[in-house]
Design brief:
alpha+beta, two-stranded antiparallel ribbon, elongated
């Protein structure tokens, strides 16, 4: 829901050094992703200290001499300025903030801050200027923190035809790595967040999901076939489907642009469970002819292919034609799933054709190895 934004965070304890590095990074971002080509850029907050600011800088020695802590000095200034919230009370069923405010009202001039009264440990009343320095300077319009560090965020939105991962690689190489090679002040950190973090997390989760799907399919087939070798043959249809899915997405992109997003990647996970069905039909029928009818290996494979070619094409064609309307005639809101549909259609189509061409020869080789391992002669079959 956050769009295609990439946040480059420049963090550190010193705001002026953070802004200096952010300005250098802005120049490199403009060179890497020019704004005139559909890219968007926005710093959060601004890159200039344009807002007037009054800073009260405590003097530790003078504070110690008067028995006043930094926290007490800050609380005193807050009380005489906007008020100090000390608790929350309930009055008439409503929660109300209990505030401590000074009797002098709001400060209307910067010089008035120097004259605010501070009560010392001995009970004396001294002005703020006796224990701190009051400086009038400029500051940021917004204070932004990331992991408790002052941060300037450079938000980049790449153009639509540029994949988000490619944009992240460009920013990492041409901006972050380049700034580190030139040298950044001590304590300044550079890192990407926003959609970039979510993309990395989702990609890692997608890889794990794909591996789990393959492992589950393999274990289920190993139990059903009572063998650890035949399921490996069946899983060879997965790379064939992957190639078909990539081809289907590439074919779609010749007519309309659709990126390889996470919903499209789900199509490859779905293919793992669908494309193995054709190979399962062939292997199961071959083993049936061998074990139940005593056919030789080659005759069993030919008979299984002849018997199962019609169900294979029937199931494949129904799935393809059921998914084609999503690819060819997308309606409102279905554009998100157009890539998923093209991956499934391309994977099913190529897998159905190549499975019939590749699986029977592989079955011949593997059946020979399995028989030799268990000591069964071809004449026994």
């Amino acid at each position: 829901g956050s769009g295609r934004s990439i946040d480059l965070n420049v963090s550190g304890p010193d705001l002026e050094k953070v802004l200096e590095v952010a300005l250098r990074g802005t120049g490199k971002i403009m060179q890497t992703l020019p704004m005139g080509e559909g890219n968007q850029f926005r710093p959060k907050p601004g890159l200039e200290l344009g807002a007037p600011e009054v800073r009260v800088i405590p003097d530790p020695i003078r504070l110690s001499d008067n028995g006043v802590t930094v926290r007490e000095l800050g609380a005193t200034i807050d009380a005489f300025n906007d008020g100090l919230r000390v608790a929350e009370v309930t009055i008439g069923g409503k929660r109300v903030d209990l505030m401590i405010k000074g009797t002098q009202g709001k400060i209307n001039a910067t010089q008035g801050i120097e004259n605010l009264p501070v009560v010392t440990k001995s009970g004396d009343i001294i002005p703020v200027s006796s224990v701190a320095s009051v400086v009038v300077t400029s500051g940021p319009t917004e204070i932004r923190h990331h992991e408790r560090q002052r941060t300037v965020t450079l938000e980049v939105r790449p153009r639509q035809d540029l994949p988000l991962e490619a944009a992240m690689e460009m920013l990492q190489e041409n901006v972050i790595d380049a700034l580190r090679e030139e040298g950044v002040p001590a304590g300044i950190q550079l890192e990407m967040s926003g959609t970039a973090d979510k993309l990395t997390e989702t990609w890692d989760a997608m890889v794990v999901d794909l591996l789990i799907a393959i492992a589950i399919v393999y274990l289920v087939m190993a139990v059903l076939f009572e063998s650890f070798i035949y399921p490996l043959i069946i899983l060879l249809s997965v790379p064939l489907a992957t190639a078909g899915g990539v081809g289907g997405l590439a074919f779609l992109n010749t007519f309309t642009y659709h990126p390889l997003d996470m919903l499209t990647l789900l199509g490859f996970v779905i293919l793992v469970g669908i494309v193995v069905n054709n190979a399962i039909l062939l292997v199961h029928q071959t083993l049936y002819h061998q074990r139940e009818e005593g056919m030789p290996v080659v005759e069993a494979i030919l008979a299984a292919t002849s018997n199962r070619i019609r169900p294979i094409f029937m199931s494949t064609l129904t799935s393809i034609f059921g998914m084609l309307p999503l690819v060819l005639f997308p309606g409102a809101g279905s554009e998100l799933y157009r890539g998923l549909g093209s991956v499934v259609v391309g994977g099913l189509l190529l897998s159905a054709i190549l499975t019939l061409a590749i699986l029977p020869p592989l079955l011949t080789l593997v059946s020979g190895l399995v028989k030799e391992k268990v000591g069964v002669k071809p004449s026994d079959l």
